[in-house]
TrEMBL record:
The keyword rRNA-binding does not apply. InterPro entries: Cyt_P450, Cyt_P450_B, Cyt_P450_CS, Cyt_P450_sf. Pfam families: p450. Keywords: Heme, Iron, Metal-binding, Monooxygenase, Oxidoreductase. PANTHER family: CYTOCHROME P450 YJIB-RELATED (PTHR46696:SF1), P450, PUTATIVE (EUROFUNG)-RELATED (PTHR46696). Belongs to the cytochrome P450 family. The keyword Metal-binding applies. This is Cytochrome P450.
Length: 402
């Protein structure tokens, strides 16, 4: 009989649940919501192996409830992307997208991202109580991915509401249909504009990219834009917001960063390990019986790979539940592993390094404006992120002299 996981606890504090599951074995049959049984992989070694196991493919029933709500056409336009594809389709899609999502394009954004970070912080008065999630952690990655894709500046505010509802998924079914239809219609209209008048942006590149006369279909193109928009700002927003929360609740680590900026890249990796923005990888489907350690997962089972649990596995990490910027291992699974490793990982890391350096430049100290226990985590079984982050910052002396 599968264990029913307490969803509220899984959202607010999942780590004791994960620790108990890891103690029992590398994988366990659980219900993540009533009637939805999955096998959850919780240990690091087995999670890494499962992420690269071709016998664990795209779940053919995954997202079926979405199709029931919005219809097959809109559902396909939302989901026919890399994370829901298997080889050879995945190989083809990734090859086409990678040509447009190049390291050169990402690196060229660094000066603009730094300027944007400073401009966002300029709007905050010293000593002012402010929600740094809304004023900094959200608009920075949202502006970056919209700039990269070529989303007009006047339209970018639309994506916050769309994202909140769509990430919540089945928990906001009553609003999902309207938001999904509006998002797909918007992307399709913008694609038509870019097709007629290409610009120097990623969406124009995705429209035109070809490989041996192969190109993205209309549904694949729309789905890839939707994926890049959400993955491009949701995960990085939560990296920035949750990462800062960790620094504020571990002031000795903030002091260590101020004393040694060379720790910033390692700090970003430890934030990703300690509070991975994605709780789990996208669900997989066992095409055949799969061995996970000493556990046999039956054919046809849905498999969820708990990235957060793997990143806290005591078998992999010394002092696994300590937030430690001196940790040198960057082999966490926050970006996944194998063929589905996040194509946007270099951009997220770049934004993280720039954002935390900008905060260190700006503030001598930052403190939470409310007790930590008053903060709430977003109700999502996929995303790990705070609803808000109210803080008060003391401006650095070097800034005050300007």
């Amino acid at each position: 009989m599968p264990r029913q996981l307490p969803v509220d606890e899984l959202v607010s504090d999942p780590y004791p649940i994960y620790a108990a599951l890891r103690a029992e074995g590398p994988a366990a049959a659980v219900e993540v919501r009533p009637g939805y049984q999955v096998w959850m992989v919780t240990r690091y070694v087995e999670a890494r192996q499962a992420l690269a196991n071709p016998a664990l493919g795209n779940d053919p029933g995954n997202g079926r409830w979405m199709a029931d709500v919005v219809g097959d056409a809109v559902n396909a336009a939302m989901n026919k992307h890399l994370l829901r594809a298997d080889p050879p389709d995945h190989t083809r899609l990734r090859r086409l997208v990678s040509k447009a999502f190049s390291g050169t394009r990402v690196a060229a954004l660094a000066p603009w991202i730094s300027k944007l970070a400073d401009e966002l912080l300029d709007r905050i008065e010293p000593g002012e109580k402010v929600d740094l999630l809304d004023s900094f952690a959200l608009p920075l990655p949202l502006q970056v991915i919209c700039e990269l894709l070529g989303i007009p500046a006047g339209d970018r505010h639309l994506f916050r509401d769309w994202s909140d509802v769509i990430i919540s998924g089945a928990h906001q079914r009553d609003r999902y249909k309207d938001m999904a239809e509006a998002l797909v219609a918007y992307v399709q209209r913008l694609t038509a504009v870019k097709r007629a008048d290409p610009q120097d942006d990623l969406l124009s590149d995705l429209i035109s990219v070809r490989d041996d006369d192969d190109q993205l279909s209309d549904q694949e193109l729309t789905a890839m834009v939707v994926l890049l928009l959400f993955a491009g700002h949701e995960t990085t927003m939560n990296l920035l917001g949750t990462g800062l929360f960790l620094l504020l609740t571990h002031p000795e680590q903030w002091a260590a960063l101020r004393a040694d900026r060379s720790l910033v890249p390692a700090a970003v990796e430890e934030m990703l390990r300690y509070e991975a923005p994605l709780r789990t990888a996208f669900p997989r489907y066992a095409r055949e019986g799969v061995q996970i350690g000493d556990v046999t997962i039956p054919v046809g089972a849905v498999v969820m790979i708990a990235l957060q649990s793997a990143n806290h596995d005591e078998r992999r990490y010394v002092s696994n539940d300590d937030f430690d910027l001196a940790r040198t291992s960057a082999t966490h699974l926050a970006f996944g592993h194998g063929i589905h490793f996040c194509v946007g990982a270099p951009l997220a890391r770049l934004e993280g390094r720039i954002a935390f350096n900008a905060l260190l430049d700006r503030y001598e100290s930052i403190s939470l404006a409310v007790p930590p226990e008053d903060l709430r985590w977003r109700f999502s079984t996929l995303i790990r992120g705070l609803e808000s982050l109210p803080v008060i910052g003391t401006e650095a002396v070097s800034r005050q002299r300007q």
